[in-house]
Design a protein that fits this description.
Low-confidence stretches of chain A: none
CATH class of one domain in chain B: Alpha Beta
Number of strands of chain B: 22
Helix content of chain B: 40-55%
Largest sheet of chain A: 4 strands, antiparallel
Strand order of the largest sheet of chain A: 2-3-1-4
CATH architecture of chain A: 2-Layer Sandwich
Oligomer: heterodimer
CATH topology of chain A: Alpha-Beta Plaits
Number of helices of chain B: 21
Strand content of chain A: 25-35%
Number of domains of chain A: 1
Mean pLDDT of chain A: 83
Order of helices and strands of chain A: EHEEHE
Distance between the termini of chain A: 33 Å
Structural class of chain A: alpha+beta
Largest interface: A-B, 21 and 29 residues
Helix content of chain A: 25-40%
Structural class of chain B: alpha+beta
Largest sheet of chain B: 7 strands, mixed
CATH class of chain A: Alpha Beta
Strand order of the largest sheet of chain B: 10-22-21-20-11-18-19
Shape of chain A: globular
CATH superfamily of one domain in chain B: Calcium-transporting ATPase, cytoplasmic domain N
Number of strands of chain A: 4
Chain lengths: 78, 627
Amino acid sequence: MYLEIVMKKSFKLENLDCAHCAAVMENGIKKIEGVHEVSISFMTRRLVLDADEERFPEILKEAGVICKRVEPDCFIKE
Amino acid sequence: MSVTLNKKQCRFLYRIIAASVFFAFAVLLSVNGVFPALYSSYAEFVLFLVVYLVIGWDVLLRAGKDIIHGNVFDEHFLMSIATIGAFFLGQYPEAVAVMLFYQIGELFQSYAVEKSRRSIAELMDISPDHAYIERDGVIVSVDPGELQVGDHIVIKAGDRVPVDGVVIAGSSELDTASLTGESRPRNVGVGDQVISGCINVSGVLHVRVAKPLSESTVTRILELVESAAGKKAKTEQFITRFSRYYTPAVVLAAVILSVIPPLILAEPFTIWIERALIFLVVSCPCALVISIPLSFFGGIGGASRSGILVKGSSYLEALSKTDTIVFDKTGTLTNGSFSVTEIHPIGISERELLEIAAHAEAYSSHPIAVSLRAAYQQTVSTSDLTDVSEHAGHGVTAMYLGRRIAVGNVELMQELGVNSEKDSLSGHGIHVAVDGRYAGWLVIADTLKSNAVYTVGELKKLGIRHIIMLTGDSPNVAASIARELGVDEYYAGLLPQDKVSVMEGILAKQRAGRTAAFVGDGINDAPVLSRADLGIAMGSLGSDAAIEAADIVLMDDDLLKIVSAIGISRRTMHIVFQNIVFALGVKFLVLILAAFGVANMWEAVFADVGVAFIAILNAMRTLKIMR
């Protein structure tokens, strides 16, 4: 049986300054293929990403693009 | 509350002040009619446009980017449309004022959020920045991350304990307040464990490292607090979802309002466009989107300052809805250690009875024997003791100072043909016979925590409907403890593995919308902690399994922390609901008034910025710590 390997990791979102943006980013990242769960806390500026391990680096890259689009100064830091 | 702004906020503040001065100037000029009538409207337009651009250029820029990305429901875009629209309708001061107040609101929001973040960060500033290690008799300063298990470190007075370890020399007092919220210092001496994050108050401690920094308490706590982001409360999720529909709905209503009524009522478009613009100003859900997470954040932060770690806002929410609390008895309601609670001598003194019992059990390491020796308080000399024989599971007989002594249970007394008073007492009745004559009995029991009874009473006052105790003790022991505590329900004679199924039974009986919490010390009960709606682990500094399995971790074993945790959770939820009702109430009221032409731009500014301002101030109340 094919078993999907899921990876959960927490990142820091630098320059996340708008609460509404956090919700928009969360919603956008959720739609990336391979993402199981995503949660952005505006207050702690944390992104918790739960996604397929195989595609994790690409997913993270796509998530970064989404964040930048919503809030131009914002970037994901490990 | 001291006001400290970062560089970005400072620049922003200067801009707002400059724009406000310009704005006042512009209003004065236009009101006094300084400009010649011929071109006064153009002059006013230019004047206000300049002020508008000074205060709002970045919002307009962001709005432009939003259009490129297709985010038409972004607040910047909506604010830009609303103010540009007002300009076109000739409402110059209103347009500038909306932008000005919007920006003031933004500055205040960023200040409030920054302040909350900082106060939580300070709270969690428990990481050690250096450690002193002893190498070949020389003390050198190293990074705590470099310490290895077995290293010998020195902790000076005033320093933070860098990693978990065991004291090998010296004694001192440790301030655990930043971890447990407990202000009374804890005494430590040789052989005691020290936990990273505590502050050494008085003497110098020599400590052997037991865990590297990455596994030490301080690191685990920080990880726990940081990953608390993962579990959002339903209310928080609801607000996110709500705002996704609210803004488009209000914008759509604005569009309809600007087109349909003027066509039907044959009224000028300008009146209705003005009302539609008011809708746009009110369409931002900022007040909720910021104040709700801020409230939860403050609640969790305030709790952690009192030594209560909450792993996410969803658990804070669940705790506020708890009406059933299930306690594991040993180590939670009781101290988890045996002690002599009653002494009933017959024909001899209490002292003598204890002396005999303590000597008979001189060689045993059983907890009961330990508690007997502890109660005797003096040293037990085995030299006076001969002919010791163990009666498996029943007791001990021996010769002590020329007398034949027997110490054990009822069965031992029967075996020896001694007439003992049949006991139906709780705990472990220990009977003593001297030279074949009954000399009395002692009662050994696990003692209740000093504030256990008080805690149960307080929980009942808070409206917790069911307080249930789980224990492995026999039913009559459990009954007497339950009676003493005032606990309504108990399950006795449980093996550790039975606890999960009992918990499941309790969960099945729960009313909808109410949660059942389980409180345990993390020993043997990790499965129950994770099975309950809400697992509360207590006294768990140092227990990995408990911290992992629990949703709320109490840093020490003070039962009253449960009461304060419930208080904090309810207060937080109360503030959250206040904000939701207040913000939505004002917004809908202004929307209705605007639709009928009663409200103007100024009310809209209040419904947007003013409401956000008040909601944020209200949310920041959660940061206040209740003791």
